[in-house]
Amino acid sequence: MLRVAVIGAGSMGRNHARVLRTTKDVEIVAIVDPEVERAKELVRIYGGKAFGCVDDALMNAVDAAVVAVPTHLHYQVAAPLLRAGVHLLVEKPLASTVEEAEALRRLAEQNRCVLAVGHIERFNPAVRLLAERLAEGRIGRVFEVRARRLGPFPVRIRDVGVVLDLATHDLDIFRFLLRSEVMRVFAEGLGALCTQREDSVTALLRFESGAIGVIEASWITPTKVRELIVVGEGGMFRVDYLTQDLFFFENAEAAPIGWAEMSVFRGVSEGAMTRLLVHKVEPLRAEMDGFLKAVRTGVDDQIVPAEDGIAALRLAWAIIEAMQRGEAVMLRPPSQK
């Protein structure tokens, strides 16, 4: 029986408590929030005890914890837990800054703790199936990846802008799918509409593989859109993150012959559209199962490791820098081939 604490009784903390409550061989021993009444409300539903802060007594009584507090508090909350040997699942982004995130990674290594990052879209079954199809070479060389993550302003967000809150999802997914690093980024955005930070951004990324990435993230649109598009030699995949649907649009001209020959004589032609069968599951439950497996067995192949969380955070800050400077930010020189 694993003793688990939920740190933060907001919307994500509530969801984590719900999943943990119905997970075998897990006991919620504590729910922590500075607004103790919020913690008590969740305790009445999911069990455990309510606390207003993470103290030494609590740290010694838990095996693992979920950190679902505002981003600027991630390091402050996670660091003492790691020092106490508590395994952590920290909501994304891992920390406010790359330096804080790297410090958490070092603490986890020093204290032999699992440190997983809550990049939940990795566990979306449509994304998992897409990753399999790309690994099989279903569309050959990938030319472009595009993500649109739009919606109205969430009143729960006060401490970060849209890049750290929304764009980090797709930055992680781009790296996960392409298995390639970003060489440079450029971005334009709008700020101070909903918050004192950026509320809308469009970012352009160039990967070492040659692929181009485009991210649109916004809090100023009245409708919610969560879409991912991957374009390659053999066609295009489209993921609807919300419905967990995966569609394939075939490039008819590329199917019988190679891209090089086709590009000279024909161009691109619309082919058949297929809706792939996706076995739908709740991503949060899959994420939690992977984390708990890592805690129990030490096998961490089903978590998003700290290194990936740091990489996404570094890209997010590069986008913010590019937006503020009004020019491209170089992350690494082009590969020498």
Average the pLDDT over all residues and give the rounded result: 92
The SSE order reads EHEHEHEHEHEHEHEEEEEEHEHHE
Q: What name does the CATH topology of the largest domain carry?
A: Dihydrodipicolinate Reductase, domain 2
Shape: globular
Rg, nearest Å: 21 Å
Helix content: 25-40%
Residue stretches low in confidence (pLDDT < 50, at least 5 long) are: 261-266
Architecture of the largest domain, according to CATH? Answer: 2-Layer Sandwich
Strand content: 25-35%
Count of individual helical segments: 10
Name the structural class.
Answer: alpha/beta
Please summarize what this structure is.
The protein is of the alpha/beta class and 337 residues long. The protein has helices at 11-21, 36-46, 56-59, 74-83, 98-110, 125-135, 162-178, 259-265, 283-297, 306-325, and strands spanning 2-7, 26-32, 49-51, 64-67, 87-91, 115-118, 142-152, 182-191, 198-207, 212-218, 220-232, 235-240, 245-251, 270-275, 329-330.
Structural account:
The chain has 2 domains: 2-119 and 285-304, NAD(P)-binding Rossmann-like Domain (Rossmann fold), CATH 3.40.50.720; 122-280 and 314-330, 2-Layer Sandwich (Dihydrodipicolinate Reductase, domain 2), CATH 3.30.360.10. 35% of the residues lie in helices and 30% in strands. It has 10 helices and 15 strands. The strands form 2 sheets. It has a 9-stranded mixed sheet with strand order 14-13-12-11-7-10-9-8-15, covered by helices on one side. Helix 4 (74-83) runs parallel beside helix 5 (98-110), helix 5 (98-110) packs antiparallel against helix 10 and helix 6 runs parallel beside helix 7. The protein is globular and about 65 Å long.
